[in-house]
């Protein structure tokens, strides 16, 4: 039954947007302004708000970080939102629903950056979120034939008041959060902002985290944030999960898959779990000229064998007859750091330490791989007569996107086609439209705010946007303006289905029922 309803709403949405297009032909400038011009201009403008000259850096509570928060509040208010900043500097904007007791759809991403970062990581999700809210409202105004009247009243401008917006959103409220810190540059602890919203910041003991000057987050919130009692204020920043139907985040892919497929958007099916190990290899230090090869216990050559054994294990899980297995394609392992002691050309290394980063969407597989890595370390070390130890430094379980959100995003992307045609030139549209008919499903190898939110609001989903060369955390980070518009349109259609069409919190179709259709 749920699936049939879902289908009906999807068809209604397609029909609505189809109708809109007929009329929109004369209104292209407005749709283009909302979906293309504004989000791209906002991204450029936000990227200029930096603590460093000639590069982009915005870290927790820095002057640029505060200026960015002020700017985001102005943009949210222009969109008819009520706004506020919470205890840790997260910026919130909300439009209530006309219906009493309606749940909220939470949208978010982060406005902090790494040092020498790019203009899209985090910022894209916030500004596309804002564009999508406007796109949804515009679509509904057209659907109700209210746009002309509104434009006449305002002398050609369209000003949507909070009360008008609420009356359009009959089925749910929208709540956009710009998280103050995701990258963790200042306190070396990720998800500070989203953990405050999820209500898990205290549980993760993050108030005790220290910045490079030795100040704890608690002190910083008291001295720089002006909070009398940070513990109480942080607890009050948590949103009540019962009021939130789902969390949705748009983010740049930060990887090469979409670009290699020639597609603008993808839907995230899950965020990979992660384990970080540190492997100690203790050999016997000695003179490079006098100790014969046969008698050596070289820590570095043992470490080298371990590095290759780990790579070979991950290669194996991905290659079967040379073909990459789709179900395993999120399993990756990396040795990114190697420390050698004493590190001199004429000394046989006495110690080697190496980091191991293992990620998979399949937690069972990851835990199995950790056991296999430990066994391989033991085997190599035993054969070489060196002493080894494996230290487990960090573990995060994977989280899965909600099937209803995944399905809803796929339907919405296809439904966004007419809306996007109204906003783009033919040549711009040619590059993206085909890609919206069937969104590829991706696993996120990187952590995102959605991971922290999912601890208390499990119904979540993410949309990925193609970025040039898969490059991120770099000034070279780039998203084509037309892809920004495509994600804005797809999210508009998604919001329309949820907040106007009544799909908020809907479950996935039952695959057995789908089989019948
Ligand atoms: C892992 O696979 C790559 C090719 O994808 C290959 O070049 C490499 O040698 C393999 N590693 C090991 C240790 O076999
Ligand atoms: C997860 O990994 C385990 C162990 O490798 C495997 O048995 C299981 O089928 C995998 N589960 C999924 C859903 O792929
Ligand atoms: C772990 O080792 C076992 C035994 O060799 C193998 O069957 C399994 O596929 C390995 N799992 C992973 C994730 O490497
Ligand atoms: C290896 O050496 C390190 C540093 O010297 C030491 O902390 C560690 O306990 C040693 N581990 C083993 C297994 O001997
Ligand atoms: Zn990010």
TrEMBL record:
Using the record, list the residue span of the signal peptide; answer none if the entry has no such feature.
1-22
Per the UniProt record, one Pfam family is: M20_dimer
Any one GO molecular-function label of the UniProt entry: metal ion binding
User: Which biological processes are named by the entry's GO terms?
Assistant: purine nucleobase metabolic process
Where in the numbering of this chain does the Peptidase M20 dimerisation domain appear?
Answer: 271-383
Work out whether the entry's keyword set contains Hydrolase: yes
Entry-linked CDD domains:
M20_bAS (cd03884)
What are the alphabetically sorted keywords of the record?
Hydrolase, Manganese, Metal-binding, Purine metabolism, Signal
Q: Which NCBIfam families match?
A: hydantase
Q: How does it assemble?
A: Homodimer.
What is this protein's record name? Peptidase M20 dimerisation domain-containing protein
Q: Which organism is it from?
A: Astrephomene gubernaculifera
